[in-house]
Automatic annotation (TrEMBL):
Region (Disordered): 1-27
Residue intervals of the P-type ATPase A domain: 144-238
Lineage: Bacteria, Bacillati, Actinomycetota, Actinomycetes, Kitasatosporales
Protein name: HAD-IC family P-type ATPase
Membrane topology, from the record: Multi-pass membrane protein
Family matches, as InterPro entries: ATPase_P-typ_cyto_dom_N, ATPase_P-typ_P_site, ATPase_P-typ_TM_dom_sf, ATPase_P-typ_transduc_dom_A_sf, ATPase_P-type_domA, HAD-like_sf, HAD_sf, P_typ_ATPase
Source organism of the structure: Streptomyces sanglieri
Amino acid sequence: MTQRASHPFGEQTPEADGSTGRPSSAMIDAGAELDPVHPVKLPAPAVDPRGLTAAEVAERIARGEVNDVPVRSSRSVREIVRANVFTRFNLIIGVLWLIMLFVAPIQDSLFGFVIIANTGIGIVQEWRAKKTLDSLAVIGEAKPTVRRDGVAAEISTSEIVLGDLVELGPGDKAVVDGTVAEADSLEIDESLLTGEADPVLKRPGDPVMSGSFVVAGGGAFTATKVGREAYAAQLAEEASRFTLVQSELRTGISTILKYVTWMMVPTAIGLVISQLVVNDNDLKGSIARTVGGIVPMIPEGLVLLTSVAFAIGVVRLGRKQCLVQELPAIEGLARVDVVCLDKTGTLTEGGMDVTEVRTLGGADDAYIGDVLGALGSSDPRPNASLQAIVDAYPDGEKWLCTQTLPFSSARKYSGAAFDEGGGRESSWLLGAPDVLLPEQDPALTEIEQLNEQGLRVLLLARAQGALDGPDIAAGAVPSALVVLEQRLRPDAAATLAYFDDQRVATKVISGDNAVSVGAVAGKLGLPGAEHTLDARRLPTDPDEMATAMEENAVFGRVTPQQKRDMVAALQSRGHTVAMTGDGVNDVLALKDADIGVSMGSGSEATRAVAQIVLLNNSFATLPSVVAEGRRVIGNITRVATLFLTKTVYSVLLAVLVVCTQVDYPFLPRHLTLLSTLTIGVPAFFLALAPNKERAHPHFVRRVMRYAIPSGVIAAVATFATYLIARNHYSGPGALEAETSAATLTLFLVSMWVLAIIARPYTWWRIALVAAMGLAFLIVLVVPWLQEFFALKLVGTTMPWAAVGIAVVASAGLEYAWRLVGRRFPV
């Protein structure tokens, strides 16, 4: 018989027919037919525990049986160019630009060059964001452990080949489909795929679905589906794609543009008829003024500026080692009003130290030390608590481990059975004292005192039966208390203070003892840390649970399913919830939260479902993400008001021109100048400026409630000036003089809208507004610029009348904005 290499998960027996034990092509094909949602158990195949040989790997690579699906963290360059160039409004403006190039001087075609420049800026900024995302995605990529030639090594997901033996441990995610080859109390959560909340105990021969993850135990599976055939390939590609969907900001802008299009089309048709048919003007002049009326209706820069703001946000966060897997997460976290934190790995560092072991019931210290050492060596993948015990008792291989019970977040303890030699056997449990001990046990008083100091306490108890028996914890004999000290994150206190200052409620949700967690939170200055609640006493009614969540700040002994329910309860009260975590027990809550935030060192499963991954494992990065989101939302809301004010007054001016049957007052060059000085340049700076204002909902309503009255006032004031000027001027050059007076009024009113939006003033905001005013003044006084833009104020009466009308309109703007703020609060 061939000698097999031993393995911690047990020896696999070859088939009786003398086969090598490797999966046949028939077995692989059978695995390829698995339904990812309703899997069928396959016969347990014979698998060589050493995995594939180098020759077999090379053979499969040559056949193309490799998991080489690229996980894209961003759009391709071609998609970026297409998305920025081929837009509905770029098409409209492009056609109008080509017309103007043939019928008017080049200065009336400037709007086309502006669009080219804007589109170029958008492409460059998104390309920069793409490079940042791609580089960060490589850093945060999962590295599954694959056994080849008897050696286990981490490799890239894309290097897995068909038939590979992939090892699994707690928190690992199955990256390809396969069949279980080895199992040691292997429990896999398939809820992200099937919706079933309970973990599934897997045995050799059972199918493994890509996208599922291990919650307890360990094992290995043979890859039966790789590449695009694997179910996870579709999930991973969709989950990490650079996207602007599912965003209130983006959806709101799309809604606005839809209504703008509906208004623009009939208005533009009426303007064309008015200028070309009703007025008997020269053809080229009529076309120029018609285009001049249509172009400013289009808020073309608004979409661009939103994309640029988001892209720059990605780059800024990327420099802080923050991977934004879904772009709207920047916006979403800015809207968050409740942050749920998992204590371990978030408020505390992953490592712990054993500070004391207190024996109970007269147990021998040396013997207890041997038990703890044996427990530490029994788990090939110890969690943070058990790792501290391993560090304290490194010599733990004296006894033979005969059975293990992996730690589970649901049961709150782990266990192992040992052959101590000399015919002596024992079974031990290690876990939460308040779970393993009855409620009235006197030891709980001592434990409570330790918990109040912020220490973590584990109970070592001797089990009376087999570990796989029902309710093994019942009747366990307490033997020792293991006291652990947790290492606080040095930046956690400042981060909690930031959220408190920003009026974001912080809830600490942990599987540890509630009093111990409250003591840790109290040391970090968490407001309400004294309000603790044991989740075992949490009401199951969603409404009552929501009340309990709002009234308390610290929750202990929380199960993974309860974390999910708590997030849902908060959401039912209208809260926008962010959930942070790094452990496998956080996955379900991370997925259901509005924003899921995972630590880079967290389990592969948490990184897969989170929208934001903190690659530097620093909780202190979160304020930067919140600040970036608030900057984007607040500033886009500001500049959107600018863009849509222009759209409103452009549409209304066109309507007034059609109704009164007069020449349209502006040429394209005039509105290009006005748009550049009152919207384009200022909007770029305002969109990228710091903004700590808390994000508010109802984007469309917030923008339009100011844009509509501002646009109406600007249009009425401008048209009034134009009509007065038509009565004032006569003879050759009258139309140019009338246009100049109307342009002056529109510029001054638009500048006042800019001045309102730029508040609260800082030195650079004042300088920005002043610079735009100075630039327009230069155009009015420099002869060649006057000629280039066809702007020349004639006389003094009409120009001063234009200024006076603008002053009255500006006062009307101030009144309207204050009235809207009182009458239509959002």
